[in-house]
Amino acid sequence: MTSLRHNADPPPERESDRESAYLDAARACILDVGWRRTTLTEVARRAGVSRMTIYRSWADMPQLLADLMTREWGEVVALAVAAEDPAAPTVDRLVGDIVGTVQRLRENELFVRIVELDPELLLPYLLSRRGRSQDAILDLVARSVAAGQREGVVRSGDPVAIARGLLLAAHGFVLSAHTMVDDRVSEEQLDAELTHLLTRSLQP
Predict the structure, then answer these.
(1) What is the pLDDT of residues 40-86, one digit of tens each?
(2) Are 50 and 44 in contact (CB under 8 A)?
(3) Residue range 67-202 in CATH 1.10.357.10
(4) Alpha-carbon torsion, ordered 115, 120, 125, 129, to 10 deg
(5) CA distance between the termini of the chain
(6) What CATH number is given for 1-59 in this structure?
């Protein structure tokens, strides 16, 4: 990723492996002690490298967290997409991708840990700006919407605007679904409502 700034460029595979190990160490730190108590020094210790090695890759923890979240949420999306039947109808597959991503994010241990201990880390991505992961998801959804429009199974409209609307709708089901679960409504029922909402939103 662009946050790596080595003086000498190593072979791509070695660089990727090294970056992955550093991010794994950071992930373990955050799961153990939370974001506030995680330092670049501790990440270096867990990764078995010098502090300066980590500093050559990331100037501070926010940069490292951004790369970690980009990797983590990207993996969540990939798992959700892989779980869908590629032969399913376009709208069903797209809705399944979104709902599956929502469900996996709610269950992701890193996401849960951040929400429990350091929820303020998510606020910039909800109130101020989009992150790289959000832009990547929006791109995937917009392309799927455009493909569905060409097939005549998705309503007309700007695919980018439609994708952004779908993502905004999904935000609440990721972050606030637990506030709507009680002895009258289950999480499964809410996910069914999200599926219905998205499907009806996309249909012509």
Answers:
(1) 999 999 999 999 999 888 999 999 999 999 999 999 999 999 998 88
(2) yes
(3) yes
(4) 180
(5) 39
(6) 1.10.10.60
